[in-house]
Amino acid sequence: MKVGVIGGGQLGRMLALAGTPLGMEFSFLDPAPDACAAPVGRHLCAAYDARAELQELAETMDVVTFEFENVPSEAVAYLAQHVPVFPNAESLRIARDRLCEKTMFCELDIPVTAFANIESQQQLEQAVTEVGLPAILKTRTMGYDGKGQKVLRSMDDVVGAHAALGGVPCLLEAFVDFAGEVSVIAVRGHSGEVVCYPLAHNTHEGGVLVLSVASENHPLQTLAEDYARRVLEHLDYVGALGFEFFEVDGGLMANEIAPRVHNSGHWTIEGAECSQFENHLRAIAGLPLGSTSLIGYSAMVNCIGRMPANAQLMSLKDTHVHHYGKVEKPGRKVGHVTLRSSGTGQLQQAVAAVQALVSKQ
């Protein structure tokens, strides 16, 4: 099977690494000359909406997917006229626009924090009186890993805040007093079958995920799966979806969805019977979905900016190293380490050892 992927970053790279043993061949559409997925497939170096390259994918691929939500939904809609594309263009349209996303959550009775659409400084000042402070102002599209956001703690922070984010449409969200951040990776197949991975506890620094730890028998697992199923069925979704939540008052409040494989699910490569990457490919290819059962106790540590030396990481017990083949620079995700141990104490020790190496970079 020939699989086209819009985007050639690390998620595309890991999709190809999971799909190659299944006999799949990959082509990536990405404008970056040094796209890190290029070594594991064919690289079409062009803009995401380049008509000639989109047409080539349409004519030569059996199925097309995408690896991040900043892909133009128009490009996905165009491809869908000629070749199966999963997830669908509507899923992408909603997930890439925070207002559409929050509105969908409300329609599906999934709890969210107070929010308001912002298209001018005047609207922002009015909304602050309703939503309250502290709050966070986010661009409706294109923001990720802490980008496109501004924290508003006082009225002084409100002054000029809309212009500071480029004067583009934004969303104002009330701060959430949460006990923790968790996410679930859910996968839906062509037949409507849904499988979900165990909830992961996530830790962020500066808006960037640095640690995910898979849970076992989390008390909110059933609720997370229920919310994920509502979204998947509403969108007639096919493929893997990441759903981030805040733990609030013993329940879950929706943060956001990602219509793709997700950073917080990287632990599944070594920590689950079938990884999120393989299950995404199974789903879009119409194959039976794989088991999401845990293998031992698992976690994932992101490497931001620089990778520790292989020898250092490999000298640690229970570690599995994943380089993305990227040029190292501050703030950039250049790799991750997954950890799989036989007990919780052993896992905690392994995570601490890896984090100590990563923090020295």
Query: CATH class of the largest domain, anyone?
Result: Alpha Beta
Instruction: Find the structural class using helix and strand composition.
Output: alpha+beta
Low-confidence stretches: none
The CATH homologous superfamily of the largest domain corresponds to ATP-grasp fold, B domain
Describe the main β-sheet briefly: 9 strands, antiparallel
| Overall pLDDT metric | 95
CATH-defined topology of the largest domain? D-amino Acid Aminotransferase, Chain A, domain 1
Any overview of this molecule?
- The chain is an alpha+beta fold.
- It folds into three domains: 2-85, Rossmann fold, CATH 3.40.50.20; 114-174, ATP-grasp fold, A domain (Dna Ligase, domain 1); 180-359, D-amino Acid Aminotransferase, Chain A, domain 1.
- It is 31% helix and 28% strand.
- The chain contains 13 helices and 17 strands.
- It is globular.
In short:
The chain has 13 helices and 17 strands. With 361 residues, the chain is an alpha+beta fold. It has three domains: 2-85, Rossmann fold; 114-174, ATP-grasp fold, A domain (Dna Ligase, domain 1), CATH 3.30.1490; 180-359, 2-Layer Sandwich (D-amino Acid Aminotransferase, Chain A, domain 1), CATH 3.30.470.
